[in-house]
Amino acid sequence: MTDIVLLRHGQTEWDRQNRLHGHVPVPLTETGYDSVTAIGRRLASQYDFDRMYAADTMAARETAALVRLTGVEPRPQFEAAWRPRDAGVFQGLAYDELGDGMTDDLDTDVDVLQPLPRGGEPLADGRARVLDRWERLCERSNADEQVLVVTHDFPMATILADIDDAGSVADLGRYAPGKCSMTTVRRTVAETTIGESDTQIGQFANG
């Protein structure tokens, strides 16, 4: 049995302002630091991780560094594959700045980025990037191994929707995690299941 814990980074200033991250380097807020420290202590007490991966974004780097300070030992390997989607011309915009009623039925930036923003990453390309890395991670994982992945809401939503066999990419937003939330994916030879989770489905999660 292999446990892979997906951890969304702590709150950033743009999260607090409901702005779309994209790939802009935005540091964690004080609230973000506190929540990462709390969840890091929980992870250190419940898991003995063999490996840690993290997105190469500022938010994920700071989150991974804080988690290590709480006692999670593996040194993180930073990878672009765990980034959120590039938001293109939407990058840095607040929801109420998008205009034209775009956000009437949208709860997360996963939803907002369903259409392709000019200069951004196409949804199909983003899903392929994340799922390719996820498949390689699963193939490399050994029995009884514990792995931590510090990432963003788009990779987490993509992975969880794929495990759950979501019928449409339009459903991705339902799987978007809350800020600094974790979900444990448990893999055995026979199946892959979504285990322990404190994800708030449908909560605003910008980045």
Automatic annotation (TrEMBL):
Gene3D superfamilies: Phosphoglycerate mutase-like. Pfam families: His_Phos_1 (PF00300). Belongs to the phosphoglycerate mutase family. BPG-dependent PGAM subfamily. GO terms for molecular function: phosphoglycerate mutase activity. It comes from the Archaea. CDD domains: HP_PGM_like. It is an enzyme of class 5 (isomerase). InterPro entries: His_Pase_superF_clade-1, His_PPase_superfam, Phosphogly_mut1. Its EC number is 5.4.2.11. GO terms for biological process: glycolytic process. Keywords: Glycolysis, Isomerase. This is phosphoglycerate mutase (2,3-diphosphoglycerate-dependent).
